[in-house]
From TrEMBL:
Sequence ranges assigned to domain ABC transmembrane type-1 in this UniProt record: 72-262
Protein name: Carbohydrate ABC transporter permease
Subcellular location: Cell membrane
UniProt-listed InterPro entries: MetI-like (IPR000515), MetI-like_sf (IPR035906)
């Protein structure tokens, strides 16, 4: 039994190590390429480490030729507005679907949730026409309005968590004279910090990496987000891989910092609680 347990343990560690290598290898390769000059990249193997490492690509990104400061600033603004809007509207909608009683509540929820099955490509042309008719094409509001009013996934995630909070606790608050908003902000949300933190990470990562909609609705450098600006670094005749990898590395760093800051809270959100 001990022998079998030892083999199983080692096999588990081997699988985990292989998985970690497969996940981390693209990030290491991106950083390694970003620290090479174009000549080094052309002359050496792709897997060869930079010799010597240089920061020229990162310096060039923030120079006059590429001016990567503007896409970063635009992306931060877009993600911040979408994050606040999605949290606010998703929390209100999820609490209504979880705790308030009204006719057609469950039917409305499942019909709304069914929109998760609709691909983005199906709605992108109607959205583009709506924004164009409203005179919002190539503006900041065109980037945020389609996503700022919550999402089916966020509402579903929060609703399921809110339903797990003991009803006796909320009923006691009602007996003490607390209204709906007081219960939501003083009891439900403090108990839901792990799932809210998880939703923050999901929302930020999703819209930080959003590419298709910003590419379609904007033109020119004024409202160019990070993903579109990174794609524009490549030309028909030149891949500019060292510059592209530098831009990719810069785009990854904020997401890593965010995850490291909230990783414990995210882990708590996926543990089984005693609510149910």
């Amino acid at each position: 039994m001990r022998g079998r347990g030892g083999v199983a343990t080692w096999a588990t560690y081997v699988v985990l190590v292989v998985g970690a290598v497969l996940v981390l290898a693209p990030f290491v390769l991106s950083l390694s390429t970003a620290l090479k000059t174009p000549r080094q990249f052309a002359a050496q193997s792709v897997l060869a480490p930079p010799a010597p490492p240089v920061a020229d690509n990162f310096v060039a990104l923030f120079g006059e030729q590429y001016d990567f400061t503007t896409p970063i600033a635009v992306t931060v603004q877009v993600v911040a507005v979408i994050l606040v809007g999605q949290l606010l509207f998703s929390i209100f909608a999820a609490y209504a679907f979880a705790r308030l009683r009204f006719r057609g509540r469950d039917t409305l929820f499942w019909v709304y949730l069914a929109t998760l099955m609709v691909p983005q490509a199906v709605t992108i042309i109607p959205l583009y026409l709506m924004m164009t008719e409203a005179g919002l094409r190539n503006t900041f509001w065109a980037l945020v309005l389609p996503q700022v009013f919550g999402s089916p996934y966020a509402i579903f995630l929060l609703r399921e968590y809110f339903r797990g909070i003991p009803s006796d606790l909320l009923d006691a608050a009602k007996l003490d004279g607390a209204g709906t908003l007081r219960i939501l902000f003083s009891i439900v949300l403090p108990m839901s910090r792990p799932i809210v933190a998880t939703l923050v990470v999901i929302t930020v990562v999703t819209h930080w990496n959003n590419f298709l909609w910003p590419l379609v609705i904007t033109s020119g450098p004024t409202w160019q987000v990070l993903t579109v600006a990174t794609s524009a670094l490549q030309t028909q005749y030149n891949g500019n891989w060292t510059i592209v990898m530098a831009a990719t590395t810069i785009a990854i760093v904020p997401l890593l910092v965010l995850f490291l800051a909230v990783q414990r809270t995210v882990v708590r959100s996926i543990t089984i609680t005693g609510f149910r």
